User: Fold these one by one.
Assistant:
Number 1:
Amino acid sequence: MSKLKTIIQIISKKAYFYAFLFFDMAEPYNGVKFNYKNIGKTISEHPLLYELKYWCAVFNHKNLAPPYPGGSSGNLSFRLNSKENNFIITASRTALNDSMVNTDFSEVINYYKNQNLITGKGEKEPSSESIMHFLIYKNRNDINAIFHGHSPEILKHAEQLNIPTTEKELPYGTVEFAKNALNLLHNSDFIILKNHGFVSLGNTMQDAGEQTYFFLNKCKSFK
Ligand SMILES: [Zn+2]
């Protein structure tokens, strides 16, 4: 009986630790902060969509995008066509899991800075961080995949891992937040957004995913 009690204590301590880290580091999720115009109900069928679903499941299993009621704190995307900036991304308020369907994703077509407007397709609004994804694709022609998560382990060990970190903590989902990230992402493919999360860029989804694994695995050596 006392053994069981100890196990329960350990589990609840761990859950408290993650909950504390998550709620302490980021403002609560209140939806997207851009204007959105839906121009089609279905996203493009693309052979790489299955791979995006695979990495969403991995992010969930590895606690790289911890869940909150009604969603997961992370967003993953891939570029649809080279030389263009449109992409498929996880939709807003969507839980990452093993059985994601096409309607859990949105297609971002364009972002109009003056109106702070995103145009897109799909049944749901695209992820709140779509402006950041758009600006990265626009400025980094070599990048075709962007994975953003809130791993408590990577955040905790960012300094020991020598990962470039943004100087200012900014409200999620804004142009300022996106530009702040982009400043570091001109010269780096893996960064920390201060008190928020990480961004992993890759030429392919496999690159972005394995790079995340690399840092997550390194965290184990600090325990
Ligand atoms: Zn985030």
Number 2:
Amino acid sequence: MRITDNQLATALGAWRRPGAALARALADAVGEAALDGRLRVGSRLPAERRAAAALGVSRGTVIAALDILRDEGWVDTRRGSASTLRLPLEATTRITPSSAMGEHGVIDLRRAVPAAPHAPYQRAVVRAAERSGPVLAESGETGPGLPELRSLIADRYTAERLATRPEQILITSGTRAALALLSAHLRPRVVAVEIPTYFDPLAGFRTTGTRLVGCQVNADGWDLDQLTAAFRTAAGGMAYLVPDFQNPTGALMPRTARRTVAELAERHHVTVVADETMRDLDLRDAPAPVQRISGSVLIGSAAKTIWAGLRVGWIRGSAALVGELAHHPLCEPLSAAPIQQLVAIELLRDLEPLLRDRRAVLRRQRDHLSGLLAGDDRWRFTVPPGGLALWLRLTTMRADLLTTRARAHGLELSPGPSFAADATHSHHLRLPYTPPISTLNRVATVLDLACGGRGA
Ligand SMILES: Cc1ncc(COP(=O)(O)O)c(C=O)c1O
């Protein structure tokens, strides 16, 4: 497909930048338009003369811009034919979303999410499309999920010494959908949550008027007295916990706390829903097997290990619970689209190499950011054993003021209170290490500036 000269001019809009050379500004504008989809990757650019006329520049400027784009991997030019737009290798192998790289002008780290593993994902989509025939010939409603995907996920649990049958797995469109379905089914009056915790479930519980009762967690662990009190209050209800590399603290629930949770749950008839979305992001040097909270309902997702855009998650519970959930009126609307389930099969079948790469990159980035911030008394933190972010305690200012100042320097962050059911943690800040080293350097510089310069 060829991009017409008009399409090129429209897609680029007002691309000139004061102070920047025309060819540089033009090349940057083409790259940005490719990244956010205004120019389609894989299509051919107009010929140089036509592009120059459409953009009101000389042919020499277009040639110079194409040279830059070629050097930086944005276009392929075969001898005698037009230039084809592509994404540079760097953009397709990294695990950082463009929005978190500052490529749209702002480094957006409000969400700690990785980009998709580009090439394996595209291959999985092609393979899924090739074998979609039988699924396309069906109604499109998969009930508890495609049998092959349920078996594959069950086998993963079994391989981790948690014997699981496919009837114990129900596929959803991610963890949040899993939690929404469980909440709709169990209808808890009170839910025990960690403080701080992942903010979306808090918002979800609030919309249904569910009462939240909290238990403090920090790098040192879970406050067992508060946990006991929270389970007593939530008797007959539910607990939503993130025991593995907790979001946002990165903490890993110790074995003793897991045992306590299981005992409390049994004593007070609380259904424990353990969110394992972060479980595979184990960044410890010598990882030991992580126990599970016995009797808990597990929810998992491919959001962090593969990509949030896959929208495939699952519930692992007793076959009886899964059977009941499969008959809930929200089961179908909260389930993953059949083709997405096929893509998930392709990716989950050979997940280990992807996980190995992802962990190596995250470990490097975590250590780099920790190194940049270490030894500064304007904040305190512990290097987390896993997950995607540092959890900083600011010693000189409130996090909302810092995030406002950071925004003025082009960095968006989520302040502590958004993670707290009781709106506390006003001096905490989540700092994802999902971006590459160069962006993390910029993040540290902005943090320094927003805190008033070193030593302020
Ligand atoms: C603890 C936790 N669970 C789940 C998710 C994502 O959920 P979903 O699978 O609905 O995208 C996140 C993403 O930030 C998370 O931190």
